[in-house]
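Final report, results section. Input specification for complex C-07:
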Amino acid sequence: MKEQTWIRVVAGMLVVLALTTAAIVFATMGTQGDAQPTAVLKQGMSGTQVRTLQTKLNSLGFNCGKVDGIFGSKTTAAVKRYQSSKGLVADGIVGAKTAAALGISLSGSSSTNSSYNSSDVYLLAKCIHAEARGEPYTGQVAVGAVILNRVRSSKFPNTIAGVIYQPYAFTAVNDGQINLEPNQSAYNAARDCMNGWDPTNGCLYYYNPATATSAWIWSRPVLLKIGKHSFCK
Amino acid sequence: MENTNNRPARDRRRKIAVIVAAAVAVALIATLASLVGVFAYRNGAWNMQVDNLYRQSYYTLSDNLLTMENNLSKIRVTRGEELQQELLMNIALAAQSATSSLAALSHGGYDMTPLIKYCNQVGDYSSYGARKIAFGLGLNDDDYKTFSDMHAMTYRIANELNAVRDKITDNGEKFVMGLGQMGQSLSAAFESLSGADVEYPSLIYDGPFSDALDSREALALKNMESIDPKQADNYVARALGGRILKSLTYVTTNESAFETYLYEFTTEDGTSGSIQISKQGGMPVMWDTDASVDDPRMTQEEAVELARQYCDKIGLPSMAPVWACVSDSIVYVNLCYKRDETIYYPDMVKVKVSLQDGAIVGYEGLNYLYNHTDRTFGTPTVGEEQVRAGDYGRMQISSVRLCVTPMPGGSEKLAWEVYGSVDVYRFFLFVDASTGKQFRIMQVIDSDEGELLM
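Structure output:
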């Protein structure tokens, strides 16, 4: 009996030791960066890449109507016809295989007259998602508006990336939640902000009264409360 | 009773078990120790990298403050306009870089905003000075006084930061003492420069960072009666373009530059979102919905016309569409007040239209409420023919029209808007209607987010 107990103790210690080693191996290896989302073109999307797709489909005889950069039902039908003709899965979504067959690129912006890319909208959507997911839609727009108000303010860095990555400015950047992939709602909120929607009317700060510990932020007069966030200047 | 015949075999098994367990334990401990060592080494390397980044920001900041101080000193005694412009551009560039370094040196322990604001304003004011010279206005006594004040303040900041250089370099003090903790000497320097006793000059001028912008009022709401937040149904229904309200819930009052009431709403047609109505006059400030489009069936042109009709419905009959961009099948239409064939860009509203069915899914009217008022600019000194005959390089002119444009510090200017293209590049170029000088240019940029103006 004593012997069995002794063996169990040794075995238990070895298991603990092995688990600890595994945990340290995992921590030492670190986590890899987020995989890039697979780019697709599908119904509901719009922009330069959709325009390129429509031009290509029309030129190949798969009529999708007017080249307007808007992926509607006519474009979907044309894509399906093209996919069927090439023996591809006819789902109307332009993924890597369909794009390769068409000879168009899905990576990055295919702008014709500039080097502009939409990283600002993406970055803003990431920060909104990390800081305000679960908040009412207008609360998400408000968080994005605060970021853009900071960009315009003399008191902060003058770029979206500069504001978002200013050390210790946003909790979600500190703890890595900024790297979560934003959902559609965060994208929509980011676009509204970029187009001028600002429910806060110029606020530069927000905080959650249930969790904020900074004495300084509590001293700011609250101008507006949306969801869990209090907004101030 | 124990069988003594089995004892040697059992003892042997036990010995083997102990030896195996000990070997496994030693192997695991050795692995653990080496991994801890690697982890500690990497951690130290990362700390060093971060420390070096902070150190780089500190030295870059010091260099740029020195450049700012030196050029601010020179501008006080320089009267040649070309040289003044060169000095002012040097200051603007150095201030911009200093702002980035300050932002990189931020941490949670104290408020860095006064310092960042100061550097931004020095750069902005210098650009403003360079613009004045370029437009033939020159610097005046007030400008020289401001530059002199800025020189004194920059000298003080540069000195305070230089004073800690020895401690950091000679005493081996680290910039990063731990998560969120900066070196003691640098922290103390920043804290003293951000204190309430430090009086940074207040700057009122024509630039985006001017202090004048802190005191804006909503001109369109002047002399309007206040409304009761509990009696806003009619105002909300009108703001939603005549939709029938199913529910309306008061959320809060926004007490920013002018007071607005925030509501959550749902309409009979299933639209739900939030809306803000001004306390004075019950004017729509903005409303928004989380709209997505699955199957776009409208054209952009149809959406623009629907946005114009919506403005009519909410009591803004003189709005002309000036720009539209489509993003994920939502069209953002910009409309401006138009009078006597002149477009008033400061009086802008934005309307969101769904390409699914043409429904209006959002409205933004803050700029209109801030800026719309009766104003008189008189007849332009420079005529349209003169503008058309101007030098625009290879640009082919498509249209010319008169407009009022907002200037960075909040003022407005009567201008000619010249729209044209060179190859695939399209431009909006603005010409001062008083002097004939070109003062702003914007390019149309194709992007995945629609056409943008930059």
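Chain B touches chain A through 89 residues (CB under 8 Å). The first helix of chain B runs from residue 7 to 75. This concludes the modelling results for the funded period.
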